[in-house]
Amino acid sequence: MGEEVVGPRKKPFFRRGILVAMGVAVGIAVTCFAVVAFLPPPKGPLFKDPLRSFLTGVGVAGVAFPLCATGSALKRKFALSPYFEGAFIAGVLNLAGYICASVALVCIGFGVYDLVLWLFARR
Fold first, then answer.
1. What's the Cα-to-Cα distance from 86 to each of 9, 16, 83, 119, rounded to whole Å?
2. Is residue 15 a contact partner of residue 70, using CB atoms and an 8 Å limit?
3. Does residue 104 have a pLDDT over 80?
4. Backbone angles phi, psi at 13, to 5 degrees
5. Which domain holds residue 89?
6. Which pTM was predicted?
């Protein structure tokens, strides 16, 4: 009879769990940025608002995760390629993701710092 030889199954570019996590991260980022946009303006300086800093940090972290995940997937895909374009694009995406993650940590840190100062000032 006609038996077909089936080769190894090709791994998907992104697994379903990663895609769902990326969608959730982008959704959280959009929500955080929308909340920050619709918050009433603070009475004092803008950088002294802990809620705004924290939400901005979470939003930027939501942008950083898909960049890093896409960069690492591209790096894995183009690992054996003799051309440098794929690895270069993967490196740029990884770098942008790491910069966004660093900015997110700084924003969240400033938000926590302002919140701690606010709590000590209330005592």
1. 23, 23, 7, 49
2. no
3. yes
4. -60, -45
5. 17-36+46-122
6. 0.79
